[in-house]
Design goal:
Shape: elongated
CATH class: Mainly Beta
Strand content: over 45%
Strand order of the largest sheet: 1-4-5-8-9-10-11-14-15-18-19-20-21-24
CATH topology: Porin
Largest sheet: 14 strands, antiparallel, barrel
């Protein structure tokens, strides 16, 4: 392999890094997580017009005007993401996964259960003014492929995680018995980690193949960022039982800075090793604007709401990573070209007893990721989901639990894919596919009222 080829593949490694620093595994549309309270996960989070617990800080801060006294809530959502690739792969460097066109199995992800915490506090200052503070993680997750050192897409990802933590103070005002409004500010620290095999992301060719070297080279990238955003909401009671809700979450700019550590084979030529010094890099991404709308009906023990969400993922056009030094080119970009997509939900709650609530919900989520840019970091597609939950009020304390299941559709790769056309056979059609399946979510919340 000549020096020119090494340089070309090195640029591919840089491009892979640009692809990954901000991309998690598939769960919500894009990499958004909406399940931040078991109280409302049981209703498929269809609560924009009718939320009445402290998690209103996330769902619609105007709902803070429905609390009484001082309330606290703490919870966690346990999310089990999944991923599985079936396709031609790269048999010459991937002997553990033979060509599935001969009927063999594909390559699964070994994504661990991810805990997503949430903590809220809210207080009624008067009959007109309310305040709240929330901590939650609405963007992120991670993925790790089951056999990362042999995975066909290892030059794109072996392992990655993204975490965003929102700290959101909010204030709500009850303008009248019919209208409540609210605003909030989100302080957002974020972290990211990525590990991949050095190689070309556009065809899976490894830079240091084991046929020539003692091992394949890898790079690990870690970074952090901080951003600021805002949210606002309104709830309106049109007639005695009919309620409307509107909420807005602003875009948030995150400027990641981090370190890149390379692990190059000892038997690689020194002139090649010199091209991969440990160093630093930066990456800017923007979390999208989101608009929410809900129509609810509350009558006696029954609450029903139909809601929708519009996320402006079209702001996510590319990822561009800037390296401070070394062969990875000073600036590498990868197209994303995500789309504006809606999400639809229907949820209900019924008070069986004065203290016991049962809940259920369904939803349909459209993926913003076009077929031209889908890759192993986010094998995303449309999904249908359903949920169920229950809660019991012990007086001063309350406990809630919910389950959500997501049925994710499969996603075929085509030759139009510009980020990672997995099939490396010259002239052959791209036959790779990310298969669908189930994603499971369990949410638990504990609350207190004083």
């Amino acid at each position: 392999m000549n020096t020119m080829t090494h340089r070309r593949l090195g640029r591919g490694a840089a491009l892979s890094a640009a692809l990954l620093l901000a991309s998690p595994s598939a769960f919500a549309g894009g990499f958004q997580i909406n399940e931040h309270s078991a109280v409302n996960t049981g209703r498929a989070s269809s609560v924009v017009a009718t939320v009445k617990d402290p998690s209103a800080i996330w769902h619609n801060p105007a709902g803070l005007t429905n609390i009484e006294g001082t309330e606290f809530q703490v919870g966690v959502s346990l999310i089990k993401p999944r991923g599985n690739y079936v396709g031609p792969g790269n048999p010459s460097t991937n002997p553990n996964y033979p060509n599935p066109r001969n009927g063999d199995a594909g390559e699964p992800a070994a994504s661990p259960v991810v805990p997503v915490p949430n903590i809220y506090a809210a207080r009624a200052l008067s009959s007109k003014a309310y305040v709240g503070l929330g901590f939650y993680a609405p963007y992120g997750l991670g993925i790790e492929w089951d056999d990362p050192e042999n995975f066909s897409g290892r030059t794109v990802v072996q392992e990655l995680s993204l975490r965003t933590f929102f700290i959101t103070p909010a204030i709500a005002l009850k303008l009248s018995d019919m209208v409540s409004v609210a605003v909030g500010v989100s302080l957002v620290p974020a972290t990211a980690y990525l590990k991949l095999t050095l190689g070309a992301s556009d065809n899976g060719q490894v830079l240091f193949p084991t046929t020539n070297y003692s091992k394949e080279g890898t790079v690990e990238i870690s970074g952090s960022a901080f951003g600021v955003g805002a949210n606002a909401g309104i709830q309106v009671t049109l007639i005695d039982h009919l309620k409307l809700g509107l909420a807005f979450r602003s875009a948030i700019d995150l400027s990641f800075s981090g370190d890149a550590k390379f692990d190059i084979p000892d038997d690689a030529p020194s002139e090649i090793k010199a091209n991969f010094p440990d160093g630093t890099g930066t990456l800017d991404i923007t979390l999208p604007h989101t608009f929410l709308f809900g129509v609810g009906w509350v009558q006696g023990p029954l609450t029903v709401e139909l809601s929708s969400q519009l996320t402006l993922w079209n702001s996510y056009k590319e990822l561009r990573l800037n390296f401070a030094s070394g062969l990875p080119t000073p600036s590498s970009a990868s197209p994303r070209d995500w789309k504006v997509v809606p999400l639809f939900r229907l949820g209900a709650e019924y008070m069986v007893l004065d203290a016991l609530a049962v809940r259920a919900g369904v939803g349909y989520d459209i993926s913003p990721v076009p077929s031209t840019t889908v890759d192993p970091t986010l094998p995303d597609n449309n999904r249908i989901y359903f949920s169920a939950g229950a809660g019991y009020d012990f007086g001063m304390f309350r406990a809630d639990v919910a389950y959500m299941g997501l049925i994710v559709a499969g996603r075929e790769l085509t030759n139009e894919n510009v980020n990672f056309p997995i099939n490396t056979e010259a002239g052959a059609p791209n036959q790779g596919e990310y298969t669908g399946g189930m994603v499971h979510v369990i949410s638990v919340s504990l609350g207190a009222r004083i």
